[in-house]
Design a protein that fits this description.
Shape: elongated
Number of strands: 31
Distance between the termini: 49 Å
Number of domains: 4
Largest sheet: 7 strands, mixed
CATH architecture of the largest domain: 3-Layer(aba) Sandwich
Number of helices: 7
Structural class: alpha+beta
CATH superfamily of the largest domain: MoaB/Mog-like domain
Strand content: 25-35%
Helix content: 10-25%
């Protein structure tokens, strides 16, 4: 057993990921499956939306110029010659002194250029009484006013929102070109581990990292395979890593420098071991290698360290491969400290915190095996490597675990959105 001789800087590891990884090749999928996927090409419309002049109100289609001068004291009358409904256009053409009863969304009849809303009209015996002027163009949705043919509707790299799918459907798009989702192989090592769903017994503990990592991968739009539990034996770990057929491999446990930490040997011997040991607390035993150009993350077995290493390194890599930003996927806010945070110069500290009345308190700065601290915490603070911490009253940036937790602007407090 030996300690780490050198530790990579957090910023250098992120820079390495940024330089070595790029978005995966694209694929074409059905529109109804495309929510939250990343566009791989611009989308331009071949159609106009709307594709015809249409009524924006229930009422009467008419010639606007014929209504000039109409008022409650001087009403005008027009002959009603038919009706226009959505999907069922009026077949004829409007002549002078005529109107067509029309419903919202129906095509504007030929010869008409305005719609008199129903509230300003009275119809009886085939004639409509007009009591207000309606200028040409009033209550008419013009062809192409929403989307013009040839216009760019959505840009490459956009994460598709539900309303985006609606727009794509409206221009006749049924399939879209999106970045492929990265697949992730999960390997959990440890002779002491029992499968998820077991009860702890004797000196053995239940694997918790695999379910946490799978959920994080899903959040970052990756596809996690079924976790494989392997013993702390070099041949077993090597076989599991080499058998992994995925864009990303994550190994939880066995990443340090002890006699039962075989994971770093595999990429070192059959691929590249670029990082082993990071100037970070917790998660200093984190490693990063490449096999056949695909990243292999060596994540510490301690649950909080595992979460920290995923947040800072593996998660950004998965997002990068999926065409997304490497930036942290947490909402953040700058808030004052209720009491000081102490750190050591030369490393980044991942400090779990709680927020009370708009002020930040460190929950724990040690205890990498205590996953429950992350459920009690509202979020975390990253203390930079060149800082000794922050004093009470000093402002820090808090990253919130709960994606629905947001600031009450102007009050300096935090509220939960339900």
């Amino acid at each position: 057993m030996r300690g780490f001789q050198d530790r990579s800087e957090v910023a250098d590891v992120i820079g390495l990921l940024n330089s070595r990884l790029a978005a995966l090749p694209a694929e074409t999928i059905d529109l109804h499956l495309a929510a939250h996927r990343v566009l791989a090409a611009d989308v331009r419309s071949e159609a106009a939306v709307p594709g015809f002049h249409r009524a924006a109100m229930d009422g009467y289609a008419l010639r606007g110029s014929e209504t000039f001068g109409a008022s409650p004291y001087g009403p005008l009358e027009l002959e009603v010659i038919g009706v226009a409904l959505p999907g069922r256009a009026f077949a004829g053409s409007l002549g002078p002194g005529q109107a067509v009863r029309i419903m919202t969304g129906a095509p504007i009849p030929e010869g008409a250029d305005a719609v008199l809303q129903a509230e300003a009209a009275e119809e009886a015996d085939g004639r409509v009484r007009v009591t207000e002027s309606v200028p040409p163009g009033r209550h008419v949705g013009r062809r192409g006013e929403d989307i013009e043919p040839g216009s760019r509707v959505l840009q490459t790299g956009r994460v598709l929102r539900p309303q985006d799918l609606g727009v794509l459907a409206s221009i006749g798009v049924g399939r879209v070109f999106v970045v492929r989702q990265p697949t992730v192989a999960l390997i959990v090592t440890g002779d002491e581990l029992l499968p998820c769903g077991s009860r702890p017994e004797d000196y053995r503990i239940v694997d918790s990292n695999s379910v946490m990592l799978a959920a994080l991968v899903c959040r970052d739009s990756g596809i996690a395979g079924v976790a494989r539990l392997v013993p702390d034996q070099y041949d077993a770990v090597k076989s599991a890593i080499l058998d992994a057929d995925a864009d990303v491999t994550m190994v939880s446990g066995g990443s340090s420098v002890g006699q039962e930490d075989p994971a770093p040997r595999v990429p070192a011997e059959v691929g590249e071991l670029c990082v082993h040991g990071v100037a970070l607390r917790p998660a200093s035993p984190t490693g990063l290698g490449f096999l056949k150009g695909r990243p292999v993350f060596l994540l510490p077995g301690n649950p909080v360290s595992c979460l920290c290493a995923y947040d800072l390194f593996a998660g950004p890599a998965i997002r990068r491969l999926g065409g997304r930003s490497l930036a942290l996927r947490y909402r953040s806010q700058t808030l004052p400290l209720a009491r000081k945070i102490t750190s050591a110069v030369g490393r980044v500290d991942y400090v779990r915190v709680i927020v009370n009345d708009g002020r930040v308190e460190p929950l724990a700065v040690s205890g990498a095996s205590m996953l429950s601290t992350t459920t009690r915490a509202d979020g975390f603070v990253l203390v930079p490597r060149d800082s000794e911490g922050a004093a009470a009253g000093e402002s820090v940036q808090v990253y919130f675990y709960d994606e629905h937790q947001a600031a009450c602007h102007g009050t300096g407090t935090v509220s939960r959105c339900h």
